[in-house]
Amino acid sequence: MSVSSNVVDVHQEEFERTGYTLVRGLFSTDEAERLRDHYMDVRRRGPQAHDFAGHTSTDRDPLKRYPRMAQMHRWDDVSLQWMIDPRIDQVMTALLGRSPYAVQTMLYFKPPGSRGQALHQDNFYLKADPGTCVAAWMALDRVDEANGCLEVVPGSHRWPILCTEKADTTVSFTDVTVPLPSTGAAVPVEMEPGDVLFFHGALVHGSNPNITTDRFRRALIGHYIQGEAERVAQYYHPALRMDGTELTLEVAEGGGACGEWTETPDGPVALLTGTERTTRKHE
Ligand SMILES: O=C(O)CCC(=O)C(=O)O
């Protein structure tokens, strides 16, 4: 499906006002199902580069059996084609005023019983500048509060990038979060397979655990940066134009893979390339 221009205007107004917009049915149910099957096959093949915290097929922690995958477009053509799909480009271009650069793919399996991801802002990690990053978060399953759908804080895209604090790792697989001015500020976004949520790099978002016993919550996510960006964190190089060609940008200092921060005696650190660490003091 392509989106008609008056519908795009509605999404653009909503994105500017709230920091996110949901495009229902941007991909068909069949496409979502094929992608779901594809990634389950890939996961069964064993560990992949950029798996979050490693892959162990026999671990009791469901997230060790089904860890998040990242940067699949660098070795998987299905992921690359999805990342630069003209439908995503059309919506992004309408939201941002010009075609973005694509810098990341991620696949969350989130099996039954697994932890969620604490509230955070993506540009804390990507460091896109000038401008920000924008996510395209596509549901591959029906996602609702029970299986830990995405939760967003409307209007928080107008906030600065906030100081972080330690997250509760009994409910989050990442250990860093941001404080909210009031409880209940985060609202759940229920979606059907093929729906895509577009959201701004400063929007506070995250998810609760999947408390079902039998439903995965799989999501395919692309991260993009505004076409006027001149730099982005090292982890996101090379950036791609939406025709798939590479471009060279400057390296922004700090940042790293989304959620990969940990506490040390010197303060929180970002894991950059797996071996290199940069200390980031709270401001
Ligand atoms: O899917 C989730 O639970 C979190 C995803 C997320 O934080 C992101 O796409 O940036």
TrEMBL record:
It comes from Kribbella pratensis. PANTHER family: ECTOINE DIOXYGENASE (PTHR20883:SF48), PHYTANOYL-COA DIOXYGENASE DOMAIN CONTAINING 1 (PTHR20883). Keywords: Dioxygenase, Oxidoreductase. This is Ectoine hydroxylase-related dioxygenase (Phytanoyl-CoA dioxygenase family). Pfam families: PhyH (PF05721). GO terms for molecular function: dioxygenase activity. It comes from the Bacteria. The keyword Zinc does not apply.
